[in-house]
Amino acid sequence: MESSKAVLGVLISGRGSNMKSIVEACESDDIPARVGIVISNRGDAPGIGWAAGHGLDTAVISHRDFESREAHDRAVVGKLRAAGVDWVCLAGYMRLLSAEFVQAFPRRILNIHPALLPAFPGLDAQQQALDYGVRVTGCTVHLVDEKLDHGPIVAQRSLKIRDDESVEGLKSRLIIEEHRCYVEALSRILEEQWDVQGRRVIFEKRISAARRPH
Prior knowledge:
The chain is an alpha/beta fold. 34% of the residues lie in helices and 26% in strands. The two termini are 20 Å apart.
């Protein structure tokens, strides 16, 4: 039933490619959840227009309208709570979350990063991988903690780097793996029992009850 599904809040800053993938996977029941709201910190983010046109509740909360990161995050958290959000999905959200935000949704914030963490955290991860000369890169979905690209790993997918790879070519190939990885991670974390052991999320067994956050 729709009422038993977890409610996702998706945060974006740009075109929202991963957000679109999450929305479509929810609609096809590949993810046992529904998207309750999409929030962007940028009014010109193409993804927010797509979400509104898709019939989703949306909000633009510009960080430029607040004096501090904490004040902006409080506004975002308030909007998420008003939408009844259970889980927060960062999908190209180019803001480092404050401790207050992380503590508002403990172990219920997911992020995707275009590298095999802990390698190449931060911005321009694809260019970092090419510059370093690694032969394999990938993407990581992890629970968010108070450090940048640091929380316990939920899922990863790898991709071999071609000898003639350009950064744009790598990005275009890697985004396909990101979509798959995010859907897989969300599906598993909502449908299976899990616990955090060290830096990993360990899955135990599938559950059939009301798929609510731990």
